Amino acid sequence: xxxxxxxxxxxxxxxxxxxxxxxxxxxxxxxxxxxxxxxxxxxxxxxxxxxxxxxxxxxxxxxxxxxxxxxxxxxxxxxxxxxxxxxxxxxxxxxxxxxxxxxxxxxxxxxxxxxxxxxxxxxxxxxxxxxxxxxxxxxxxxxxxxxxxxxxxxxxxxxxxxxxxxxxxxxxxxxxxxxxxxxxxxxxxxxxxxxxxxxxxxxxxxxxxxxxxxxxxxxxxxxxxxxxxxxxxxxxxxxxxxxxxxxxxxxxxxxxxxxxxxxxxxxxxxxxxxxxxxxxxxxxxxxxxxxxxxxxxxxxxxxxxxxxxxxxxxxxxxxxxxxxxxxxxxxxxx
Length: 334
What we know:
Elements: E1 4-17, E2 23-36, E3 40-44, H1 51-58, E4 66-71, E5 74-75, H2 82-91, E6 94-95, H3 109-120, H4 126-139, H5 145-149, H6 158-171, E7 176-180, H7 188-204, E8 208-213, H8 216-222, E9 225-230, E10 233-239, H9 240-245, H10 250-257, E11 307-310, E12 313-315, H11 325-333
Parallel strand pairs: 3-8, 3-9, 6-7, 7-8
Antiparallel strand pairs: 1-2, 1-4, 4-5, 9-10, 10-12, 11-12
């Protein structure tokens, strides 16, 4: 089994609304997850589910309200000095969603890459930084690299800019790249190229990737495992083919039903009443119950736990999870 690279235990982040006595927005609640060496993990969910907050927690942009992050078995919360944080962020860099604002328009691609190398890999000289910048550009498919180095961001397409983002992250010699919706702002025709870049980084550069997306179809294409998140809770996870072929949680089923299928009959729509997730002081209970066609009384009384469905596959559902059968039967009988 591959070694665990990064692990989160009980990861929680709440945001205060309206001052000290105001309410709390529960962006992430009690999240447990792990990413191994040379693995692409997809974190899937709709807008507002907490995916980007998880990315910012893992990169130490936000400090968690509760819980801990472990990198190579060591707690990340102990990193307080600037040098230690810089070293960690070099190991776990981030590729941002918007390729049009993530690069400084006043500087060339070469300047952006070599400046990052100067900060994160101080052992390299000027010529070595130049050579490394050209190498990572070629790795992500930007050729000829010497010509790309001289270009400004406005001279590049959105897909090329996003490849520069991956090149910049790769130049730090990372162990894990966190890619936050890296293809959502790109044309459908060029998304596959970026997904192939992530697969190549895993297979050839031995880099793990946390691929954050709302597109469950692209998650299936590139990832080894999938984590499904809704309203701050992890509701299902497991090997990507097993979860997507035999989904247990109704929210996972809803995401799959929303994938366009040209063979489906006209007029068939997923069973979704359209209630938005409630994450401000949500209290106990399943947060998907407002939209769930299977909701039972117990769903409003207790928050479901992740139960084992099969080896490596867990789901948090009072109705569909295997461990919940006796609970529902008792409720119906009463």
